[in-house]
Amino acid sequence: MKRKKQLFYDDDLVEWIRQNKKQLYWLAYSYVKNEQDALDVVQDSIQKAMQNYQQLLNKEKLKSWFYRIVINTSLDFLKKFRRVQVTDDDTLLYLSSSTEDQYENLDLAGALERLPTKYREIVILRYFEDLKIEEVAYILNENSNTIKTRLYKALKILRIDMEQEEG
């Protein structure tokens, strides 16, 4: 019989999770593209973080460490449940009932979606999660220069894609 892993955490971790729950959800959602799956990924990530919190030696890296857990859990989820991603009813309702002109945002969202994963995740972490290059490198377990190069290439691809959408 498999024993459950004991939870090791403190109030700082719980408080940080509470303060950042929306960002964690959106990060997971950016990978799995489904509300319930994103919630499951966040829940699994919280459990993993609580089980391994004692291994985090530098508490100042909590955000990067936790984001790495969410990304890895999302990728594991996608590998385990490879399936066609269908837009859920809430998203369709939100997009169809908008009174504002959302074309630019939809174009950007579409262009981001077309980016290869290795570029998209860098753009999301750097610009949507407002992380520094070094933090992105830590989360993705890559060299900072590699992240800079991929970010530059991703922005170039996005610019070309957006220009083609306009034309």
Task: Tell me what you see in this structure.
The protein is built from eight helices and no strands. By secondary structure, the chain is mainly alpha-helical. The chain has two domains: 1-84, Rna Polymerase Sigma Factor, Chain: A (Orthogonal Bundle); 96-167, Orthogonal Bundle (Arc Repressor Mutant, subunit A), CATH 1.10.10. Helix 5 crosses helix 8. The chain starts with 10 loop residues before the first helix and ends with a helix.
Strand tally, please? 0
Please give the share of residues in helix: over 70%
- Helix/strand/pairing category: mainly alpha
Low-pLDDT parts are 95-104
Number of domains: 2
How does CATH name the architecture of the largest domain?
Orthogonal Bundle
Distance between the termini: 61 Å
Give the gist of this structure:
Residues 32-59 form a coiled coil. The chain has 167 residues and is mostly helical.
Identify the notable features of this structure and list them briefly.
Rna Polymerase Sigma Factor, Chain: A, 167 residues, Arc Repressor Mutant, subunit A, 8 helices, RNA polymerase subunit sigma-70, mainly alpha, globular, single chain
